[in-house]
Amino acid sequence: MHFGDALTAATKEKSPVCVGLDPNLSKLPEGISKDAEGMLTFCKGIIDAVKDTAACVKPQMAYFEVLGWEGMKVLKQESTLPIIADESCQRLEDVTRCANIFDGINIKLMKCGGLTPALKMIEKAHYLNLKIMAGCMTESTIGISNLSQIASL
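The chain above was modelled as a monomer; its predicted structure follows.
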């Protein structure tokens, strides 16, 4: 099933919510250790809390750098929701690295370098059975319209 169809089904069954996992170590709640183990505990708590209402979760790699790629593998094993790569997938070479860690990738034209690199990333992601999500940062309406042209791929 195409990711767009699966996501549409999940949003109809649950809600149109994709929950961001941004576990800033310095802002973890009291009682949770300010280390990798605490970060995983915190994120598992969020995933458990939203699994019946959210369509997916999207971890912010900047906060997981302390865990490295192995930490992302652990997070995927613990998650009952699809995990979408965000900042950890910005270039074509990142797609392969994400294949065993994430369920899908979020492509941003401003990060990947434009439509041609985005199309190559989509092709590679399809080959690796990854779901595709179209994202944006500060693109103009022209940039967003370009992304919308390839969003159905």
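The two ends are 12 Å apart (CA to CA).
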